[in-house]
Write a structure and sequence with these properties.
It is built from twelve helices and six strands.
Length: about 260
C-alpha cells in the first residue's frame, strides 16, 4: 500500500520513490540533475514537463504513478479555538460550520453589543451590507463550491504562504476576517484580533483516497525546488477539495499546533 506524504521534503521523496520502485536517494539525484535550461522552453509549462521527464528516467508516467498510490495525506491549515475537536468530528465544510462560527464571534464580541444588535448586524451582512468584505462573505457562504473543506498536498505551503502567493490560513481564516471587517465598520473594535488571541494556529493532517496526477506533479515540483534552493513555489500548491462533504474524524491522522513567533 502506497501513501503519498509530503509532510516535508524527505517524506515526499520517500513516498514517491517507494511507489516508483527506487531509492529516495536515486529520485533526489534525478531531480537535482534535471537540466534547468529546459525550463526556458516556453512551448510547454515547465512544471508539467519536468515531472514527466524526471519520471521518464524511471519508465513511469505521472498518471501511471498516481494510480499506484492507494491514498494520500493532505494538510488543512487553520486557526481554531479547539484544535483537538478535529480528532473527534473531523473537518466540516463551511456550510456546516457557519452557525458555530457566528456563535463564537458573538461570544468574543462580549458586552460591546447586545444580542439584538448582533442579530441585526448579521442580518445586514447577509442582506447585502458590509462592502467588499460582506460581498466576500456572501460569496463563500452562498456557493457550495467554496465550502470545502480544503487541504493541500504539501504541508510546508502553510508555513511560508508568501512563497506560493497564498492566504496565511494559520494567521486567520478568511471567513473570520470577512465577518470581523464588517463588524469593525459597523460597531468598531477588532474582532479578528480577539479571535486570533483565543485560537491556535494548527495544521490538520488527513488521509483520502482522492489522488489525481496533479498531486504527483506538485509533490515532484516541491521536492525539486527544495533540493535546489531550499524554497517552494506556487507549483507545489495543489489542493484537496471535500466538495461540501466533511472529512470524518477517523480520517484525521494528526493535529499539529504551530508555534509562531
Amino acid at each position: 500500500m502506497f501513501w503519498l506524504d509530503c509532510h516535508d521534503c524527505e517524506a515526499a521523496l520517500a513516498s514517491l520513490a517507494e511507489a516508483i520502485g527506487t531509492a529516495a536517494s536515486e529520485l533526489a539525484v534525478a531531480l537535482s540533475d534535471y537540466d534547468e535550461l529546459r525550463f526556458e522552453n516556453v512551448a510547454e509549462d515547465p512544471w508539467e514537463r519536468m515531472p514527466r521527464e524526471v519520471l521518464g528516467r524511471f519508465r513511469v508516467g505521472v498518471e501511471a504513478l498516481a494510480d499506484r498510490f492507494d491514498s494520500a495525506y493532505y494538510f488543512h491549515g487553520t486557526r481554531a479555538i479547539d484544535p483537538d475537536g478535529f480528532r473527534v468530528r473531523g473537518i466540516l465544510p463551511l456550510g456546516q460550520m457557519v452557525e458555530e462560527l457566528w456563535a463564537t464571534l458573538r461570544e468574543l464580541a462580549g458586552d460591546d453589543v447586545t444580542d439584538a444588535e448582533w442579530h441585526s448586524f448579521r442580518a445586514s451582512v447577509e442582506d447585502g451590507a458590509g462592502g467588499h468584505s460582506g460581498m466576500l462573505y456572501r460569496m463563500k457562504v452562498g456557493g457550495r463550491v467554496h465550502h470545502g473543506p480544503f487541504a493541500v498536498v504539501v504541508r510546508e505551503t502553510f508555513l511560508d504562504p508568501a512563497s506560493t502567493g497564498s492566504h496565511d490560513y494559520l494567521a486567520c481564516p478568511e471567513i473570520v476576517q470577512d465577518i470581523a471587517a464588517c463588524y469593525g465598520s459597523a460597531h468598531g473594535g477588532n474582532l479578528e484580533q480577539r479571535f486570533c488571541a483565543a485560537a491556535k494556529p494548527c495544521i490538520v493532517k488527513l488521509r483520502s483516497t482522492q489522488l489525481r496526477p496533479g498531486a504527483i506533479a506538485a509533490a515532484l515540483c516541491y521536492a525539486y525546488t527544495k533540493l535546489r534552493d531550499g524554497e517552494i513555489t506556487s507549483s507545489a500548491n495543489y489542493s484537496f477539495d471535500g466538495e461540501g462533504e466533511p472529512v470524518r474524524g477517523w480520517d484525521v491522522v494528526d493535529v499539529e499546533i504551530i508555534s509562531r513567533v
